[in-house]
Design goal:
Elements lengths: L4 E8 L5 H12 L3 H9 L4 E7 L1 H12 L3 E7 L7 E2 L10 H12 L12 E2 L2 E2 L6 H10 L3 H17 L34 H6 L6 H12 L3 H25 L3 H6 L3 H33 L17 H20 L3 H9 L3 H8 L3 H14 L1 H19 L6 H20 L6
Parallel strand pairs: 2-4
Antiparallel strand pairs: 1-2, 1-3, 5-6
Helix pairs in contact: 1-2, 4-5, 8-17, 9-11, 9-17, 11-12, 11-14, 11-17, 12-13, 14-15, 16-17
């Protein structure tokens, strides 16, 4: 019988800081910073993959070493102790399918998904897929109700061992790490996608389905969302009132020829409004995400995101500048970017991402189904306009609906991580 090996993390390479490792590890494998922090903070060796044959073990070792990790291969008989990222059950693999996938990848000159020739190892650098897993998925050619009982066992293990990193799923590809097996890229029985699935465009929905599900979830939640929006509106009015009281009218200053001073008073209030108001907006977005999976929501929770003042401000300013530049470049790029970054704030509050990473992932995921998302939010925007006409009365129903629609779309694209 062939020897089996564990892939063991023993520390960081000289010159690699914890911050550099966490950034590289999260970017490459799509896991949360908390998970990366658990690895680097461990006082003992960490088994990051186990029970692999020598070829696979070496592939995983190379992938992890590229993030600055010191890796050792240990035969199973060595029984390395310490924190484990592995599920407790044995791997079960379809060997014949794997063999076909491996042969296809080895002779692959173009990406089977986007036809790009920009391929490094098993990964397409343009669309981000892992070729061997994509081929395997295409060969299976069915959703299989999310791998039936295997996925149910994985989900049950995750609930029973949520405090242990060993709950992560295994894949055959060294780049598909703990949190993102390709088998979860399709919509699961609970209607949730995954981070890797969202980036690869492995999600789908109809506008009717989104509106229908969101409307059902407004029942019993309208009052909570209306109170949250009330907090947002009160704070916005208070900020505008303060600046109206203490500051001159920018238009009058410009008419008087004091252009520079007018620009300062036109832009200055926005730079104050964003860090004060947008953490509340982020809280409302997270409420919508939580309601999409029937988790508990609380209107006062919208004040709990001021720790994100800096990244939320950077997100708003940078995405706004990119979008404005896009409108200056023949308008169409601006329209594209207006929707491409639409999930950035949701990714930040649900998955604790940095603003730049959230912008990149949102853009990649939205691009795969840009027109569908465009028409969905176009319909929603028209509905909000119509609801505002009769003395804003219609917003009593439409504001909660809009909040939950955004959460349901996010759930279909990426899945919800902030709810256990």
């Amino acid at each position: 019988m062939d020897s089996k090996f564990n892939v063991v993390y023993t520390g960081l390479n000289d010159g690699v800081t914890e911050e550099e490792f966490i950034s590289s590890f999260c970017a490459k494998f799509g896991v949360s910073e908390n998970k990366a922090q658990q690895i680097v903070s461990s006082t003992s060796d960490v088994v990051v993959k186990k029970n692999l044959d020598e070829v696979k073990a070496k592939k995983y070792a190379a992938a992890f070493e590229s993030c600055g990790m010191l890796i050792q291969l240990s035969e199973i008989a060595a029984q390395t102790s310490g924190l484990s990222l592995e599920p407790m059950s044995e791997e079960s693999e379809a060997k014949s399918t794997e063999a076909v996938s491996s042969m296809a990848v080895s002779s692959m000159a173009q990406c089977p998904k986007c036809s790009s020739e920009n391929i490094q190892g098993d990964e397409c650098l343009d669309c981000g897929i892992f070729i061997s897993k994509y081929i395997e998925y295409q060969q299976k050619n069915s959703v299989q109700t999310e791998v039936d009982s295997n996925n149910e066992n994985n989900e049950s293990a995750a609930q029973n061992e949520s405090s242990d990193l060993s709950q992560d799923s295994q894949t055959d590809n060294p780049y598909a790490t703990p949190e993102a097996p390709l088998e979860r890229n399709v919509i699961s029985k609970e209607g949730q996608g995954s981070l890797e699935g969202g980036v690869n465009g492995d999600y789908d929905f109809t506008i009717g389905e989104i509106f229908g599900e969101a409307w059902e979830r407004t029942k019993g939640a309208k009052g909570t969302f209306l109170l949250a929006w009330f907090f947002y509106i009160v704070v916005a009015i208070a900020i505008n009132a303060v600046f109206s009281f203490i500051g001159p009218d920018p238009e009058i200053l410009m008419e008087q020829g004091r252009f520079s001073e007018g620009m300062i008073w036109a832009i200055g209030p926005s730079l104050i409004t964003i860090p004060v108001l947008y953490p509340i907006l982020a809280g409302i977005i997270l409420m919508g995400i939580h309601r999409s999976v029937d988790a508990d929501i609380n209107a006062t929770s919208v004040f709990g995101h001021y720790r994100l003042i800096v990244p939320l401000t950077l997100l708003t300013i940078v995405s706004g500048l990119f979008t404005m530049l896009g409108f200056m470049l023949l308008i169409l790029p601006g329209i594209y970017l207006s929707f491409a970054y639409i999930m950035s704030m949701a990714l930040m509050v649900d998955r604790d991402m940095g603003f730049w990473e959230a912008m990149g992932i949102s853009r990649k995921a939205v691009t795969k189904h840009w027109f569908k998302i465009f028409f969905l939010y176009l319909v929603l925007g028209l509905l909000l306009m119509i609801a505002s006409i009769p003395m804003l009365i219609g917003l009593i129903w439409v504001l909660p609906l809009a909040s939950i629609i955004h959460g349901v779309v996010y759930k279909y694209m990426f899945g919800v991580e902030s709810v256990e």
